Fold this sequence. Notes:
Order of helices and strands of chain B: EHEHHEHHEHEHEEHHEEEHEHEHHHHHHH
Distance between the termini of chain A: 9 Å
Number of domains of chain A: 2
Oligomer: heterodimer
Strand content of chain B: 5-15%
Number of strands of chain A: 13
CATH superfamily of the largest domain in chain A: Glycogen Phosphorylase B
Strand order of the largest sheet of chain A: 3-2-1-4-5-6-7
Amino acid sequence: xxxxxxxxxxxxxxxxxxxxxxxxxxxxxxxxxxxxxxxxxxxxxxxxxxxxxxxxxxxxxxxxxxxxxxxxxxxxxxxxxxxxxxxxxxxxxxxxxxxxxxxxxxxxxxxxxxxxxxxxxxxxxxxxxxxxxxxxxxxxxxxxxxxxxxxxxxxxxxxxxxxxxxxxxxxxxxxxxxxxxxxxxxxxxxxxxxxxxxxxxxxxxxxxxxxxxxxxxxxxxxxxxxxxxxxxxxxxxxxxxxxxxxxxxxxxxxxxxxxxxxxxxxxxxxxxxxxxxxxxxxxxxxxxxxxxxxxxxxxxxxxxxxxxxxxxxxxxxxxxxxxxxxxxxxxxxxxxxxxxxxxxxxxxxxxxxxxxxxxxxxxxxxxxxxxxxxxxxxxxxxxxxxxxxxxxxxxxxxxxxxxxxxxxxxxxxxxxxx
Amino acid sequence: xxxxxxxxxxxxxxxxxxxxxxxxxxxxxxxxxxxxxxxxxxxxxxxxxxxxxxxxxxxxxxxxxxxxxxxxxxxxxxxxxxxxxxxxxxxxxxxxxxxxxxxxxxxxxxxxxxxxxxxxxxxxxxxxxxxxxxxxxxxxxxxxxxxxxxxxxxxxxxxxxxxxxxxxxxxxxxxxxxxxxxxxxxxxxxxxxxxxxxxxxxxxxxxxxxxxxxxxxxxxxxxxxxxxxxxxxxxxxxxxxxxxxxxxxxxxxxxxxxxxxxxxxxxxxxxxxxxxxxxxxxxxxxxxxxxxxxxxxxxxxxxxxxxxxxxxxxxxxxxxxxxxxxxxxxxxxxxxxxxxxxxxxxxxxxxxxxxxxxxxxxxxxxxxxxxxxxxxxxxxxxxxxxxxxxxxxxxxxxxxxxxxxxxxxxxxxxxxxxxxxxxxxxxxxxxxxxxxxxxxxxxxx
Lengths: 418, 445
C-alpha cells in the first residue's frame, strides 16, 4: 500500500498541533510492513526525520522546465531529497506555468506558515500537486486539513485514485461558529469530492456531518495519539523558584481555546487561597485582552504570562506545572493534555474537546463552568491523593494511546477504498 | 426439608450537594435535599411500596409459611421518615405479622468495620436500638455493610454479644464447599454464619430480565425446581438481594412481582419452606468452619472491598474521615455528630471508584466522574474537619483532650457533690441557728 499524503507542517518546524499529529501518524503507519508513504509539505527545512518515509517539498518541485546541470542541482537539493527526484519531476510538468512567479530552478516559493496570502499558497500547492501526482506511483491520496484539500483533489482528478481527507480542525471550531465563507467553501468542496473523511474525534465527526452535510457512512472518527517522550525530554527537571502550586494554560491564546475562562477560574481560586499561582503560556490575538483582564481582576500578583514557548521550553513549562488546564470552547482533538499527562501533570479539560472522548484519568468540566474548573484546580492543588492518583493513572493511560493503533484504523479505511 | 431464606437490603445514602471549595468554612449544610427526596420517592413508588404490599399479601395468604427478612440502614430510615413515611408504615405492618425479621447493621451503612472498631460497635448499637423502637423487635442477626466480612469482624461482632451473622458465599473462600449450609466462624466457633447463594440470588437480581440469558424467561416453576434439584442434604438456600430488585432494578413490567408471588405455591408443592435468617441459624447445625482471613463483600466479580478501597482517592478520603473518629466522639454537638454519620455512608466512596472506567461507571453515581466525586467529598470533609477543630483546638491531642475532658467532667461532678453537701450543711446550720435562737428566746422568757 502506497499513500501520497499532503500536509502543511512537519516537526521540528511546527506552529500548531497539525505537524505533531502528522508526524506521529505517519510514523505509526510506517510500522506496517507494506506501507510506503510520500509526504508532501510546502517547505521542508532539511532536518526532518525521513527515516520512515519520503518527504517531498513543494518548493523543490519544478513547475517550469529549466535546464539545470547536475552540479547545481546536487548541492541545492541533497539536503531535502535525492536530487534525481528533481529531474524525475521535471519530466512530468503538465502545463505552461511561465506566467507564475518561479525561482531559478523553476519552482514556486512557499512560506510553509500561515501568511496573509494563504489562499494563494494553497492554490500554488495544488499546482505543484499535479506534478507530484504524475511523477509517483501510489494507491491512495491522504490530505490533512483544508489547506491541502485542493492539492489532494487535483491529484485525485489527475490519477483517479481514491482520496481520504483528514479533518484535524474545521472552520467552525476555529471561529466559534462564524466561519469564513471562502475557507468553508474549500472545506466543503474537499469533503464533497473525496472518498472518505477521517475526523480526529466524534465531536468533529458530528460537526462534519451536520455543518458540511456529509453522509454519516462517509465519515469515520480516528482519535489521535501521542509519541512517547524522548529520553532527553524525560530528563527535564522541574524548575520553580516558588513553593506555590503552579497551574498552567498552554496554547494559542485565541477565542477557540477559551483563555478567558481560565482567567475567571484563576480569579475564584486566588481570592480564596494563597498557595496557587497561574501561568498563561503562548501567544495569540487575545493575549493583550487577557493581560488587561488579569489586571482588571486584580490578580496580577499571582498570574503570569510567558509569551510564546517553543520546543523544549514547552516541556520545561509542563514539567514545572502541578495542573494543566485546557478550557477549549471547541477543540477537535487537543493533543496537549496528553503531553501534559506524559509529563505526569494532572489535567483538567473541557467536555468540548475531542480528547475528552478517550481520556478517563483527567478532570472534565464544561468550558463555561468556571466554578467547577476552579473547584477542580483547588482540589488537585490541595488534596495530595487526587494529584497523585491523576499523575500515576494518567501516565499509565496515556502511555497506552499509541499511533500504531490509530494507524491500523486508517489502514482499514485505505483497504476499503482501494 | 429445604428452606429458602430471603433477605432484602434497603439503603439510600444522603447524597451530597455540589459543594465547591469556596463554600468551605461558610456553608455547613452538605446534602442535596432535592435529589434525595426525588430519588427516594421514585424508588418508593416503583419498588418499596408495591413490594411491601405484595409481601404483606403473600404472608397473610400463606399464614406462617412465607417469611422474609430486611436490613434497613439507619440513614435510609431517616430519609423515609422525612420523605416517605408510608414506607415505614408498610414495614411496621409487615413486622406485626411475626413472619418478618429485621436485621441489624451499621447505622450509616458505613465501612467502620474496616477502620474504626469502636465506631462500628456504636453504630450497630445505635441501629439495633432504632430498629427495636420502630418495629418492636430486638434484632439478633448482624449484617455488615455490603456483607463485608472477615474473621476479625466476626470476632468483633461476637464480642458485642451477637452469635448470628450473614455474609457472601464468595467462591474463593468456599472453594468446593456449598453455600447452602450453616457455617461457623473459625475464630469464634459459636458464631454462626449464613452465606449468600450467589447463583440463585443473581438469577433474580441481575439476570431475571436479561433477554440474552439462555434461561430467559425465568419462571417461578423453573426457579423452584432448580432449588429442589440441589443435593438433598443441602438445607438452606439464601437469597440475599437489594430490595430495589423488586420493581426498580427489575421493573414491574418484567414480571418480577408475579414471579415472587408464585414462589410460595411452587415451593410448597416441592416441599420447600421459607424461614428467616435467625430461624435458619437457630434450627440448623453448622457443618463446618468458614475461614476468611481477607475481607470479602458481595460486590463485583471479585467479591472483595476494592469497590470502596480500590484506589488512592478512596483510601485517602477514608483515612482522612476516620482519623477524625476519636475526636468526633469527644464532641457533643448534635449536628456535628449527625454529619459524622451521614459522611460515613459507603456510597460516597463507591462513587470514587475507578474500577469500571470504560465499561459504564457506577450506574448509581450522581457524579460525572470519580474525580468529581472525590473533589466534592473532600471539600465537604474539609469543612467538617474545620468544624470539628473549632470545637476543641487541634493543638491538643486526643489523649490529652480526653484527660482534660474527664478532669472537667469529674470536677463538674465534684462541684455538684460539694454544692449539695454545702446545701445540706447550710440547711443543718440554719436549723441549728433556729434551734439556738429558739432556745435563747425560751431562756430570755
